[in-house]
């Protein structure tokens, strides 16, 4: 199969979808890999690294899309790429269709095959291609939240871990999945007073068993969240419904319960955000203020640490990319029901129920 690796062009997206070692694996299996010039440079990989692995370097993104049968990306195509996606072309990347009708309609129009990382499942029912970036985003959410609590950044001027004789900041984590767990552990490691919420009692019991003593668990309800907000300095939104839009757990009226200079970090922004007042931001302009509350809603948080993120992502995606290249998407999906769940749009038709439901469409 002819595989194409375009350079990511979303704002401050520094990751690349395939490492030179992953390229070598595909080439050794008889596939042809085309990499756009400087696609890997921000992740620490030069064109020469890819050439040594057996890839061919192409000068432009148009050349890559025009040549490849399968495009492997990190983030969804942006508007300037819509017209490059061809009928029958397999695009393997994070899509998050449910919160972007324009993207969804563009991919329907292209009649391509859209395989979404975020809805592929493994034999245990986990999301293996979402987990590594969720781990990165969960840990980074606390780093960024701590930064924007600083007074020069518009925050309260609170140190997350406090100091002897001064109480630490209070952190509320909404969601006990991979993002929330990593956020809670990171915040706890910095010495914060952490509360993690979830609607699953079995999950709360699991968290209670291994979390440090400065992490408390709380059942997630509107009442309980409202009770916490008055004394919370940093909220991490870490809710996920696979392939579907995130629910709004904090409404605009609830912001009035918080003290000015508090920070909300919405890691669920790729799926529409779990705060009513959230809208996507970029690493160039990561925050905005609503009712005195700082909102951090960067849609590609792991893009800020591409050297780590690219390696973690390729570790997870490569086995699936190899399967798709070896067998073609149809046969690969016949043999792997979990990979089949990654199909969101096929030849102009939405095939993933949660995407259709998000826009009130019928499959």
UniProtKB/TrEMBL annotation:
GO cellular component, one term: plasma membrane
Entry-linked Pfam families: AlaDh_PNT_C, AlaDh_PNT_N
Catalyzed reaction equations: L-alanine + NAD(+) + H2O = pyruvate + NH4(+) + NADH + H(+)
Binding locations of substrate: 15, 75
Domain (Alanine dehydrogenase/pyridine nucleotide transhydrogenase N-terminal) ranges: 4-137
Protein name as catalogued: Alanine dehydrogenase
CDD domains xrefs: L-AlaDH
InterPro entries referenced in this protein's UniProt entry, alphabetically: Ala_DH (IPR008141), Ala_DH/PNT_CS2 (IPR008143), AlaDH/PNT_N (IPR007886), AlaDH/PNT_NAD(H)-bd (IPR007698), NAD(P)-bd_dom_sf (IPR036291)
Family statement drawn from the similarity comment of this UniProt entry: Belongs to the AlaDH/PNT family.
